[in-house]
Amino acid sequence: MKAAWLALAVICIVSFGALAHKPIAIGETYPSRDEAVQVTNMDVSQVIYTEISPESPQSWIFVETEGAFDLYVSLGVPWIERLTGFRPGMVIIGPGLPAIDLSGPLEIPNGSGAVFLRTASIPAPEIFHEPFTGTDSWILLQQTVNLPQAGRYDIVALSSSDVETTKPESGKLWIAVGRREQFGVRDILSLPSVIRDVRAFHELPPRISTSGWIRFAMIAAIAGLTIWAITRNL
What we know:
globular; disordered N terminus; Jelly Rolls; 5-stranded mixed sheet; alpha+beta; 6-stranded mixed sheet
């Protein structure tokens, strides 16, 4: 019996993993280092949906490491027609990274280096379909960056031209970190509102497809049964 309930728990986790990333923020912008939002549990798959503009040309998040760490990052753009040619970049700033000369408004703290990940040369990015929200995105970047020592590392999304000109582009994008899927009951219960907000960010009607509702109902039912079974056997 316990093996059966364990199998149900595994099904729940794997099925919900199809959401791909756990949202940290949807639509907010963090325009400076002082206003950056911290991402904890860096190996867990998490995403921030944000927007940059001439008024707020950068969006900052950061992680803190206790030692060397291989950070998986990805960068994407919602599949919206006006963003077809939008190619934002990503700069990772922190101790032990290579020295780099970046002109423009992006400042690197003393003692830090940086890695600049560009996407301007990508002619035809991969399209990613997220089944729960029914949204599509262009994936511009997927890369593992070695953070060589303990400390704070800033991850900055910006226009590809931001560090080279005074006229940054405007556009929506998302930044994701981590690969490991980890979802709890609260994440499952908040799924309808997350779907609504993510679809709004992608400029789609706030509706969930029939298949999405079926998946949500199945996962919620399995999660409920799993929790009931576990608590009953405690």
